[in-house]
């Protein structure tokens, strides 16, 4: 057959033109030999600099620096900035003070999740939404036109880095002084470092102690990177990509992989982010009220997969339970827990803890058991510490 005669496609020939943006830290990361890139929010994104498990252990034991400038920030501002920001999300923003951040869901009129950003409230009517990989800005512009609100929408000049791991506090203390250690979880400060304008937040995507530094001047990317690496040298700081092992242990979902616009908050167990019992006016209120009252037909759950170590899935894996079918969206081997763990979508009647299911992996059919989420540190004491 013709297919048997053709050579595999060489991924190195994939076009890398100016249409694909580079972060302000791109040149600095090249010194550390990134082993691969993906494209995230139209921006080149380094996926790792070492073996994935080596990066996992370094995050757990030391401190890591991660270029997440691909998390582009949609800025909402103007006289109706608060009203419009509230229209986007089902979480009550009146409970968020200026100088505070929240993990929020941006929801469509039908209740589907369009994105799950960290939101920062910069002033009474200015908000930043740090986006996962999806095009929310065009949606927001369309919604603003429909709503007829006096609001300006743009992509903010803000480029985050993450400093994560148990020695992250030592690094930011060296950069900004002792008082910085008083910054509460999910709060932020405007700062300057060597003349570089920044915002420092107590947030992260790793389930470890951590901070994010938002660079506010793209021309200073290499300067900021070098300054952080210098401050982190005594604590063995290293650049990494996203440490999926740790985020799965911690019960963190990845938009686009574990959920999309076809899923609603109740299917994901994210009820705490839906404030239907407040006066908050948001676009999905009617749909989410109906979904809450009717109940959901499917859920995402944790699964522990039996057998030898599995490498992280590159595609969804089929999962079945007593004749019903579903899919595993994220799965990986946890070296600390010494087991394969992941997330599976299943019909709600098959999602009780302890239910036995079967997962079709590249290594063959495996037995699995539905387990509570998160798999490690259920009270989130590590990142809050």
Topology:
Elements: H1 2-5, H2 26-30, E1 36-40, E2 43-48, H3 52-61, E3 64-67, E4 73-77, H4 81-88, E5 101-103, E6 106-107, E7 113-115, E8 118-123, E9 126-130, H5 136-147, E10 152-155, E11 159-164, H6 168-176, E12 188-193, E13 196-201, E14 210-215, H7 221-232, E15 238-239, H8 244-249, H9 285-294, E16 298-305, E17 317-321, E18 324-334, E19 339-347, E20 356-361, E21 364-371, H10 381-384
Parallel strand pairs: 3-15
Antiparallel strand pairs: 1-2, 3-11, 4-9, 4-10, 5-8, 6-7, 8-9, 11-14, 12-13, 13-14, 16-19, 16-21, 17-18, 17-20, 18-19, 20-21
Helix pairs in contact: 6-7
**Strand-residue fraction?**
25-35%
Report the sheet with the most strands, covering strand number, pairing sense and barrel closure.
6 strands, mixed
Q: What percent of residues adopt helix (DSSP H or I)?
A: 10-25%
- Write out the strand line-up for the largest beta sheet, numbering strands in chain order: 12-13-14-11-3-15
Count helical runs: 10
* Straight-line N-to-C gap: 60 Å
Q: What is the arithmetic mean of pLDDT?
A: 96
In total, the number of strands is: 21
Instruction: Label the structural class.
Output: alpha+beta
Q: What gross morphology would you assign?
A: globular
Supply Rg: 21 Å
Low-confidence segments, given as residue ranges, are none
